[in-house]
Amino acid sequence: MPSQSHPPDGLVDKLAHELHVHQIELESQNEELRRTKSDLSAARDRYQDLFDFAPVGYFTLDRSGVILECNRAGATLVGARRAELKGCSFSRFVSPSDSDRWHLYTRKVLGEEGPQRIELALQRVDSPDTWHGQIDCQQMTLPGQEPALWVTLTDVTERFRAGIDQRVAAQDADAREAERQRVALALHEDLGQRLSALKMELVSLSSGQESEVYRERLGGLLASLDDAVSTVRRITQELRPPMLNDLGLAAAIEWLVHDIARRVELSFTLSLDAVAPDLGEQTRLALYRFVQQAIALLVLDAGSTELHIGTHCGPDHFVLVLRSRWQQQATPGTPPLDPEAARILEHRARAMGGRLAIDLPRDPLGWIHLELFMPLTKPQHTDTGHGDAR
C-alpha cells in the first residue's frame, strides 16, 4: 500500500492565513460597497426631493413632446395629478392661440444646442382661464437613453399683466399728451384770439370818450384782459411748451422755473448742460413732464422755498438732479416729502426706463435730494428743427 504524502510543515497554516486575509479584504470591500450604495441612495433621494419640491415646474419630454416625468410644482401649474400626466402630450396645456409657436419652438430646441426660452399662453386642466408661462427647454442625451427634452416651467402671469398695464399706461399717457396739445391749441387759437379781439374793440371805444370815470373803468377792463391773455398764454405753455421742441429741454426747464418763481416765493439756481445729445421728442417730453411734476410736488405741494436743478449729459446717459429745502423751520411733524408723491415720481422714472434715487434729510432744514439716472438709446425719430442745445 503506497504511503500518503503530507504537506510540508506550516503550509496549511500559511494557506489558512492567506484565506483569512482575503476574507477580511472582501468583507472590507463589501462594506465599502454598502456605504457607496447608501451614499448613492441618499444622493438619489436628495435629488428626488429637490426635483419634487422645487418651486418651479420640471418636466421631461420625449422628442414628440410627450411627458415622461414631472414634479409636483409642474403638476400644480397645469392643474393635473402627476400620475395622469405621464404619457400625456405637453401641447394639451398650450393655448390654441400659441400652439403653432410651441410647435416651432420644439423644432428649434431639437435643431440647436443650448437652452431656448419662450413665453406662451397656457391652460390648466381644472380651469378655463389662460395663464402665461416662461418655458426654458434644452435637449439632453444620457448614456444608453433616447434624447429627451428637459423643461423648466415658471408662472409669469403677473409679469405679463404688468407689461400689459405698462403698455396701456404708456398709451394712456400718449393720449393725455395729445389731449393737452389739443387743449393748448384751442386756448391759443380760439380763446386767446377772442380775448385779443375784445381788447382791440375796447381800445377803439376809448378814443372817443371824455369821462374820467369811463376811462378808469375801461383801463381796469383792459388790465383784466391783459391778465387773462397772460394766463391763457401761461396755461398754453404749461400744457405744451413750444420751446421744448424749438429750443430744447434746458430752455423749457429754465422757462418753467422762472414762471413758477414769479407766482410763488421761490429762490432757485440752475446748472443745466448747455449742449445735450438729441434725446428724441418722446424722451424730451417725458423728462420735461418729470421735472414739471417734481417741481410741483417739491415746491407747490411740499412748500419748499429753495430749489436747485442740474443736468448732466453723457454719451449714453442723462442725469437730472433736483434739490429743495425750506428757508425756515417747517411745521413740526411735516414730512419732507409725501411718501405717495415719492412713489409717483419713482413710477414715472421707471416708466421712462430710468432710475430715481431719493435722499431725504434728517434735519428739517436739510436738502431733499432727487437724482434721476436715465440711460439713453437712439431716439425713435429725430426732430428736424432743433436739438436739445441751449
UniProtKB/TrEMBL annotation:
* Alphabetically ordered keywords of this record: Coiled coil, Kinase, Transferase, Two-component regulatory system
Coiled-coil zones: 12-50
| Residue ranges occupied by any PAS domain in the UniProt entry | 43-113
- InterPro entries per record: PAS, PAS-like_dom_sf, PAS_4, Sensor_HK_TwoCompSys, Sig_transdc_His_kin_sub3_dim/P
Q: Does the keyword Mitochondrion apply?
A: no
One Pfam family name from the record?
A: PAS_4
Q: Identify the GO cellular component terms for this protein.
A: membrane
Alphabetically, the GO molecular function entries are: phosphorelay sensor kinase activity; protein dimerization activity
- Kindly give the NCBIfam families that the UniProt entry links to this protein: sensory_box
Instruction: Specify the protein name.
Output: PAS domain S-box protein
Q: Which organism is it from?
A: Hydrogenophaga aromaticivorans
Please spell out the taxonomic lineage of the organism that makes this protein: Bacteria, Pseudomonadati, Pseudomonadota, Betaproteobacteria, Burkholderiales
